[in-house]
Design brief:
This protein is mainly alpha-helical. It is about 75% helix and about 0% strand. The two termini are about 25 Å apart. The relative contact order is 0.14.
Amino acid sequence: MLSGAGTDADPRTALRHLALGLFDAIDAHPWVGAELSRQPWRPALLDFYESIGRLLDALAVPEKARFDAAGTLVNYVLGVAAQNAANARLRAGSDTDRETFLENAAAQSWQIDPRRYPFVHAAATQLREHDDREQFLVGVDIFLAGISALH
């Protein structure tokens, strides 16, 4: 089982730590996410799936729903990490730091028609100031809230 998913921890807390651990690994080494997606039978991803499955079992997620729940969480983790890695590659090729990158993205959002895209226009302010890790964990918490409905 992967670090952060110990049997002594609360399963929800362990799931958060496990997901954040993979997120951080891919953030630090963007090639990891592509490699895991390309070869899903690799032991690291199998260990991740196994840990997720065991923790979902500990949360009493019904067996029939466990496969979909595990796949959904793994796809969320890999997808968000891949998007962050892609953004980092964009910045790496341009001498633009994260703050400037987000400021430019927010400025482009403010230029769109707020009547057609009211949410995107309003979210531009938050885009400049958001923390990727915190936003990622909010997504994990939304996932955990959703699996509560499976009981």
